[in-house]
Amino acid sequence: MLDVERIRADFPILSRSMNGHPLVYLDSAATSQKPRAVIDALVRYYETINANVHRGVYRLAEEATREYEAARTKVAAFVGAPSPMGVVFVRNATEGINLVARAWGDRNLREGDEIIVTAMEHHSNLVPWHLLARRTGARVRAVGITEDGRLDLAGLDVLLNERTRLVAVSHVSNVLGTINPVAEIARRAHAAGAAVLVDGAQSVPHMPVDVAALGADFLAFSGHKMLGPTGVGVLVVRPDRYEEMDPFLGGGEMIREVTLTSSTYADPPWRFEAGTPNIAGVIALGAAVDYLRAVGMDAVADHDRTLGAVARRRLSEVHGLRLLGPSPGPDATGGIATFTMGGAHPHDIAQALDGRGIAVRAGHHCCQPLMARLGLAATTRASFYLYNTASEVEALASALDEVARTYAPRPAVPVASGPAPAAAEVPDDDLFREVVLDHYMHPSGREALPGPAVEWHGRNPLCGDEVTLRLTTEEGRISGLQVVGHGCSISVASGSMLAERLKGRTLEEARRLLRGVKAMFHGDPLPDDLDMGDLTALQGVRDLPVRVKCALLAWTTLEEALDAPSSPEDHHGHSHP
Ligand code: PMP
Predict the structure, then answer these.
(1) Nearest one of 351, 272, 328 to 363, comparing CA atoms
(2) Tens digits of per-residue pLDDT, 190-245?
(3) Tag placement on the chain: N or C end, fewer CB within 10 Å?
(4) How far does residue 196's CA lie from ligand 1's centre (Å)?
């Protein structure tokens, strides 16, 4: 059992308040908070031993080099690498994976070869393989997932063949929390003659990981998710794979001898650490490893599982909430609780929680293929770490109870004359003023147009929100306007207001209102005499760039329609992609 109160005292940021509430940080899967020991290691480096490593012939440089290399030894022991020489310091997990794609992939893959990934990979473990496939003519294939969020291992056997060069798989899914059976996958991949890369971004910070026991040829992870600073990550390479790798980035540090026209290279791992590394970051990552080892990775994993079980039990009581992924156990960490909620969009949920000091992640979590597989545009994710408590989980759940009440179906109420809503039902956040909610629940402009119309689509890739505008015009006037699509309360309400305001107006009036809306969101003065009406209810989003995109979605789509060479003035009943 962890002494969580003692641990919390080590994390200065946890005593912050946020929007008038104690900060409840539930986004450690994105990045973890840092204990005082890690912050102190950064400061101590700069205050007492700052010098470049591996170069200076003076005491200070030796001290810096010794500490830098000591961190390599600590990291190697932490993940069971047979030797510190197997540890390459990079910027983050993403860079580690890209390094393998370049240094190993370019040399070993050719046209017709295959790379196997899975349907639950983070974009970091997909895009480098897409790029490698483009460079070499290789092909990327994907193992699917089962309905309960596990990998379809039988599918792996179907895909593995003599052309498979690499299987790239995450150890723990950053959306589902699934712990993939990497050792078994590696066994099957090796039997087929393929190498194995494990994305350990979500496992190394949360559970004991032994790279040798996993049988991984490459293991990539990020320091910032395991209490370390940003800007430092690790690629662990099985030593015999170094022989199959070419240098990637060239420059100082990674060479043995250089002439004007050629060079020879240092031994690995330094061969893959070109230029001055993030010395302070690496040393502070060493301090993070010390901290985690002192706590014990078994205890960290236990704590995640316990909190995850509490969270699943309590969150499943929230009306309309549906949890994704398997329950905590041998094949699922408890550290990740991702969910959807009936009528409430993830952006709206995250924003309502933020109003209560609770930080969660909303969106596609850099897993668009997984979202597509699940038939979702976005989800909300709470993620836990060693400093989180059961009472924070309860704070999350009771805030979600309130969100569920806010977004429960309700009759349309004319805002001006309707009864004042009960205080408990309305979040104190300005963005969710009743007028926005009413537009969201009962949007205007949905009715189909009788005939053909000019059609424009807009999409916000961050959250998958979509809008389609259909317009008909007669003599410079918008005679018909339909706004359809799906999204958060802000984007739907904004589209609904657009429909109400512009139907029957001239194209010139539409342009004027568009200028006003953009000015409002950018904090610029409004055009003279422009009455913004209901739209003023949206102005609170001005300070939140992500939400400004939501609010502008319908309007930027309108702008494209108005600015297009074949603008609605010229065409009637024409359809655009
Ligand atoms: N893989 C997984 C599973 C992740 O969760 C993340 C971070 N969200 C990454 C890779 C990429 O990590 P980074 O951005 O630190 O490179």
Answers:
(1) 351
(2) 999 999 999 999 999 999 999 999 999 999 999 999 999 999 999 999 999 999 99
(3) C
(4) 18
Q: Do 457 and 517 reside in the same domain of the chain?
A: yes
Tell me the average pLDDT across 21-45: 98
Nearest CA to ligand 1 atom 14: 94
Ligand 1 pocket residue status of 367, Cβ below 6 Å:
no
Pocket of ligand 1 contains residue 93 by CB under 6 Å: yes
User: Quick one: average pLDDT of 62-72?
Assistant: 97
Structural domain contains residue 41: no
State the amino acid at position 525 in one-letter form.
Answer: P
CATH of the domain at 272: 3.40.640.10
Question: Would residue 44 count as lying in a domain?
Answer: no
174 pocket-lining for ligand 1 (C-beta < 6 Å): yes
Q: What is the 3-state secondary structure (H, E, C) of 3-52?
A: CHHHHHHCCHHHHCEECCEECEECECCCCCCCCHHHHHHHHHHHHHHCCC
pLDDT digits (tens, 9 = 90+) for 452-470: 888 999 998 777 889 999 9
Q: Which of 294, 327, 361 is the last residue of a domain?
A: 294
Distance (Å) from CA 124 to ligand 1 centroid: 6
Last residue of a domain, one of 245, 269, 294: 294
Active site residue 366: yes
Check which CATH number belongs to the domain holding 544 and give it: 3.90.1010.10
Q: Which two tokens stand for residue 250?
A: 């060239």
pLDDT, the chain, mean: 92
Atom of ligand 1 nearest to the CA of 173: 3
For residue 96, the ligand 1 atom closest to its alpha carbon is 16
Q: How far is CA 515 from the centre of its chain?
A: 33
46 located within any domain: no
Range of the domain at 326: 4-30+296-406
The DSSP code for 329 is B
Q: Considering just the CA atoms, what is the radius of gyration of the chain in Å?
A: 27
What is the pTM assigned to this prediction? 0.89
